[in-house]
Amino acid sequence: MSEALAAEMPKVETKGGVTPYLSLDGALKAAEFYVKAFGAEIAAAYPPDEKGRTMHVHLYVNGASVMLSDFFEEYGHGFERPQAFNLTLQVDDIDAWWTRAIAAGCTEVTPPQKMFWGDTYGQCADPFGVSWSMNQAAT
């Protein structure tokens, strides 16, 4: 990365103990979608390159950092469909979070319901292929 490009990126706090870093087809579009679907805040983002790809987007989602980038085949990071994981949001009002996510364009996988462990849990998928789950602790 050039020093000039690095200088364009503001230094922002990384929140949380584990930070997911997702490679997606359309990182800036995904970031905008996550603002609508999950109330994300875009903390910082590199401008897109001449092909419309961005190297780095830093989001805050539900009090934690989530980072995104587009695929860069020339650096060994070609397109791969997201699989074998989900991002779980621990929420206080699952109905409000769920309604917002579905209204924004997420697809219902498992509707929110009381689970055997006592919490209310649901799972959806976003248009970028990422699985998201929501968990509201039993009160």
Your description of this structure?
By secondary structure, the chain is an alpha/beta fold. The protein folds into two domains: 16-75, 2-Layer Sandwich (Signal recognition particle alu RNA binding heterodimer, srp9/1), CATH 3.30.720; 87-136, Signal recognition particle alu RNA binding heterodimer, srp9/1 (2-Layer Sandwich). The protein is built from three helices and eight strands. It has helices at residues 3-8, 27-38, 94-104; strands spanning 21-23, 41-45, 57-61, 64-69, 87-90, 107-114, 120-125, 131-136. The strands form two sheets. Strands 1-4-3-2 form a four-stranded mixed beta sheet, with helices on one face. A four-stranded mixed beta sheet has the order 5-8-7-6, with helices on one face. A hairpin with a 5-residue loop joins strand 6 and strand 7. Helix 2 packs across helix 3 (94-104). The longest helix is centred in the N-terminal third of the chain and has 12 residues, at 27-38. It starts with a helix and ends with a strand. The relative contact order is 0.18. The mean pLDDT is 92.
